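Hey, can you fold this one?
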Amino acid sequence: MSSRDSIPRPTVRRLSLYLREAESLLQAGHRTVSSSGLATSLAVTDAQVRRDLGHLGQKGRAGIGYRLAPLITRLRRALAVDRSRNVLIVGAGRIGRALMAYPRFDQRGFRIVAVVDADTSLVGRAIDGHVVQSVDQIETIVVDGDIEIGIVAVPEADARAVAQRLAACGISGLLNFAPCRLNVDVPVIDVDLSSSLEELAWAMAEPG
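Sure. Predicted structure:
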């Protein structure tokens, strides 16, 4: 079995898709899944599935495939989603509100425990069950709330300063919705919606 650090990032992305599919199949009453079953549903090859799951020490049995329950357990452990993590959203604007309303965060073990904003007109307001607090309280909120993940949903002009504050007070990782790179000493995943749309537009364009 490979160490987590040796698993390529593209493989990690596919492991997340395998986990969703495996959970869906188990919920539908299935007990096993073949590599070809996973491959067909996720548009990859059988060999790719076997290589990816091989990183986790998972080997399917001939004629049976992979048992779903232990496969799900192993995937959750590999993806480090086998326990709950507390999340802070910085920014209660349109993106922040959409994230607050997204039900799958809590279902996947990501608990939004606090929301902060610099807009004093929003501070104290309840939005989707979360009372917006002042951005000035970030450090106290992170420590008292045992928060591991920060979601940066602020304008580009404020994002770098917010990221630096979050990293300095002990956040373990950031999900960044601002259209800029954040150079901090913690893992950062950028969610660039405009780039995704541009990539989609390119894929849709007819060759000419």
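The two ends are 46 Å apart (CA to CA). Let me know if you want another pass with a different chain boundary.
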